[in-house]
Amino acid sequence: MQAQVFKAMGDPARLTLLSRLASGEGHTIGSLSENLGMSRQGARKQLQVLVAAELIELHKVGRETEVTINIGQLQQARAFIRELERQWDQRLSALKAFVEQTDPSSEADG
Amino acid sequence: MQAQVFKAMGDPARLTLLSRLASGEGHTIGSLSENLGMSRQGARKQLQVLVAAELIELHKVGRETEVTINIGQLQQARAFIRELERQWDQRLSALKAFVEQTDPSSEADG
DNA sequence: ACAATATGCAACCTAATGGTTGCATATAGC
DNA sequence: GCTATATGCAACCATTAGGTTGCATATTGT
């Protein structure tokens, strides 16, 4: 569900992780876990939340694990928000049209 | 912070509320609280979370309370995601340019 | 083989979340 | 004024989240 993606994004530490990944600062669990204001295990848990929401993917390479961001999931989240905005705009348009139809004075000059 | 907005959107019931508001189904606390699969008080709590994230606003009118969606906050959330995507695209472009510069064979035909 | 590095797994704790119920209060309509 | 409606407020409860610590394990480099 969409909610899970937003929920995963609903935490400062996790947004920081996504931001780091998007801008290319570090791409292993270890490097990403630095300077997050929490232990490595704490950071690992946050990464797991992002994995569960399919916002990132983990791939083991030797003894380290590469982390890659899933841009597609971000795009879907953005599309969902855009759809809400679209519905709202449509509703406003419909309301405006209705008002102009029932109250002709509103479409004439003031 | 941005995280709070995403966090507020990270729940099915709250997404339903936002969707109803955007599409114009109901605009009072009472009407919005119907068919959410929880009690009125439960729904009220979820609405309060959206208020705290400034995704909606409440205005008392007589004995009922009007609920309006704050499209601006949705736009900001969307802009934040778009920015992440932009950074990622830039990173990819930079990487591509770097590879092409250091390894000229990659820009020639195969 | 051994030490260092990168990570995983699990138990544990506290605070926050999501939901309930019960009761109080203000407005509307007859 | 009385009744119904729309809402608020607070206590309570179970589950989840966010974070810690301790220990196990797999690679890597010498």
TrEMBL record, chains A, B:
Entry-linked Pfam families: HTH_20
Segments traversing the membrane: none
Record-annotated HTH arsR-type domain positions: 1-89
Coiled coil, from the record: none
InterPro entries in the cross-refs: ArsR-like_HTH, HTH_ArsR_DNA-bd_dom, WH-like_DNA-bd_sf, WH_DNA-bd_sf
Protein name: ArsR/SmtB family transcription factor
